[in-house]
Amino acid sequence: MNESEKTNTNERAVILVSGGMDSATAVYEAMERGYDPLFLHTSYGQRTENKEFESAQRLAEVVGPDEFLRVETEHLKHIGASSLTDESIEVADADMESKDIPSSYIPFRNANLLSMATSFAESQDASAIFIGAHSEDFSGYPDCRPSFFEAFQQVIDAGTKPETDITLEAPFVEWSKTQIAERGIELGVPYNHTWSCYREEAPACGTCDSCAFRLQAFQRIGVRDPIEYEERPTYRH
């Protein structure tokens, strides 16, 4: 980031903190831009929700956010149609070349999460919402596309009080996972306090899509991923 991109606002930002590496990097990116962080963590019946919550809590112990709000819902699990929330659908092994929508896609999840984040931000007079979505997400997940976030900004503007001014920030939306890992190392993100595996709460499987993209990112920048894996295939290509 250039010096001109830093703001020193002393304003607050709600950050969707899943417990994963992208959202953790978004936390540090928001703080680098001068925002005081407000954590919003959601549990919605995903397979690894306990580990994700634990990871978000550990990150909060390091960062010390102004607020930490955990919202527990079950509607996305009841809706189903995703391998992350429906035990009858198997979590597939990584297929990093596929452009199809993967079985891990949760229908319209980000709209649900961003709606909660907007409510929280407006109630706390926060001026921004940060989400860690990136380019390798939107290649398969329609609710991670830049056009989705642009449209949701219009929803925020239309659906909040006239005096409310909340900017939706997706700072990594055009970035690769590798670029995020590189930025996070630069910012000192404690990646040992994050979790990305879709299948397991310990150790990470190393072979689902999320593990594969994470391991590839660390392998490409020559840094060992600090979390424990059942296996560590080489994804450097």
Radius of gyration using CA atoms only = 17 Å
Counted by DSSP, the helix tally is: 8
CATH topology: Rossmann fold
Q: Quick check: average pLDDT?
A: 94
Per CATH, the architecture is: 3-Layer(aba) Sandwich
- The gross shape turns out to be globular
Secondary-structure-based class equals alpha/beta
Please trace the helix and strand order, writing H or E for each element.
EHEHEHHEHHEHH
Number of domain modules: 1
Poorly predicted regions are 1-8
Total strand count, please?
Answer: 5
Approximately how much beta-strand content do the residues carry? 5-15%
Instruction: Give the C-level CATH assignment.
Output: Alpha Beta
Helix content: 25-40%
Keywords: ATP-binding, Ligase, Metal-binding, Nucleotide-binding, Zinc
Binding site for ATP: 17-27
Pathway: Purine metabolism; 7-cyano-7-deazaguanine biosynthesis
InterPro entries: QueC (IPR018317), Rossmann-like_a/b/a_fold (IPR014729)
Notes on the protein architecture:
The chain is α/β, with parallel strands linked by helices. Helix content is 38%, strand content 11%. It has helices at 21-32, 49-63, 75-79, 109-123, 135-138, 146-159, 177-187, 209-221; strands at residues 12-16, 36-43, 67-72, 128-130, 167-169. It has a 5-stranded parallel β-sheet, with helices on both faces. Helix 1 links the parallel strand 1 (12-16) and strand 2 (36-43). Helix 7 crosses helix 8 (209-221). The longest helix is centred in the first third of the chain and has 15 residues, at 49-63. It is globular and about 50 Å long. The two termini are 26 Å apart. Residues 1-8 have low confidence and may be disordered.
